[in-house]
Each structure stands twice: as structure tokens, then as C-alpha cells.
From TrEMBL:
SUPFAM superfamilies: NAD(P)-binding Rossmann-fold domains. This is SDR family oxidoreductase. Belongs to the short-chain dehydrogenases/reductases (SDR) family. Coiled coil: none annotated. Signal peptide: none annotated. It comes from Methylobacterium soli. It comes from the Bacteria. Residues 8-192 form the Ketoreductase domain.
Amino acid sequence: MDLKLKNRTALVTGSTAGIGLEIARKLAVEGASVVMAGRSRAKLDQAVASISAEVGAGIVRGVTADAATAEGAETLAREVPQVDVLVNNLGIYESKPFAEITDADWHGLFETNVVSGARLAQRYFQPMLDRNWGRIIFVSSESGLVVPPDMIHYAVTKSAQLTIARGLAQLTKGTGVTVNSVLPGPTRSEGIVEFLRSVASDPEAAPDVLEAEFFRLHRPLSLIQRMIEPEEIAALVAYLASPLSAATNGAALRVEGGIVPTIA
């Protein structure tokens, strides 16, 4: 299917690995000019080279910036003054007992998971309205709806993303701009094995054993009982970035393997 993304410019934050990398790759394959944002120049260069080897030179470029900071947002706004598609993918997570969550933990998660996307949406939203076309996509989580008791602080930030996205969508009424959220479930991305070890009964177990135990004990509602592949999430994000998704606005679309036990 042609997603009609040729000549569109997309900015993807947190795009040097995992979900963000595959979103950038999918958008580039579909014809978009992609700007990848990350903190490490070396990782950015590696990610850009990986995608460029597939789609050709000149389609993807990297901007070194920490989107979780005001300075990083300013850098992105200066280096990428106009975008058609903004994918707020940057995010961090951890498992931690509620009684042990510090003020620094709360502030760090909010700055990275919530404020970073809000800043960039503020920068690019009005120009999209002025041009009467644009796509803003927040990569949230099923944890924003089904709260893991060992990740309450993370879940709060993911619920906050849904609130921002829905509120912005209500400001697009009658325009060609849409704002949506995607809710992935546990995903096979960078650092996932270490996360599984942090909640496992036997941290030294093989990765497949860790994964099976995680779903049995911590995500029993999952219908697929496996990690979601980053490419599976990227496919949905690419559709939302496309002109083909014009009738989808203000939505929270689930790609979480059936963890959310509701019919809508």
C-alpha cells in the first residue's frame, strides 16, 4: 500500500534504537524525508547509515539533541524549522516499588516522557494549522490504561500523554491536522532484557525464560503472550502519519497484544 508520504518531512524523537528506529525506517521506506533525533552522535550516525543503506542517501539525517530538555527542543526547532509529521517517541521506563519512587524519579520521567513531547507539539502545532495539514503522534503505552503496580510513575506519564494528545486534537476541528496516540505493549527493544531481569525470579535465566515468566506473572492479560516487535508498532505509526488516516483524530490506538481488557 502506498501511504502517500513522499515529500513529507517527519521528525522522530528517541529514534536511534527500538521503536523509534523502526518508525524512522518505516517512514523513510514509505518516502518521507526523516529527521532522527538523539543524544549520541555515534548512535545517530549508525542509525542513519542503517536506514540509508536501505532507502538511499539524503532521505534520512540525524540531529544531535536531547529532546527531554528545553535546550534540546530549541536545537530541534532551529535545525528542523518545519515538519509535516511529528512523532513524540522519546521515553524511559523502569520497575520500582511505589514507596521507593523519589522526587527525582517523578521529575525525570515527566520531563522525558511528557514535557518533551509537549514542548515540540507547541513548536510545530500552530504552523501545521496554518498550512492546514500535519500529523502529531504520541507513542504512549498500554500502561496508561492498565496500570502496572510496579510502574505507577511510568503509567502516570503515559496517561498524561493521552490527555495532551486528545486536548490538542480538539483544537484541530475542521482542519487537515490530526493528533493521535499509539499504545504499544511490552516491546522487544533495546534494554528489554535488562528490564526483564529486574523483575524476574531468576535474573540469570535465559531470555526466552525471562519473557515467558514476565507474561505469566506480570502481563497475564496479554492475548499474544510475547513481546511485540518494533516493526509492528512502526506499521501503525506510519499509517497515522499518512494522508490515508485523515478520518482518525483524537484517538488512542492500541498495538499492545490484547492487554487492555475492554471492547473499545
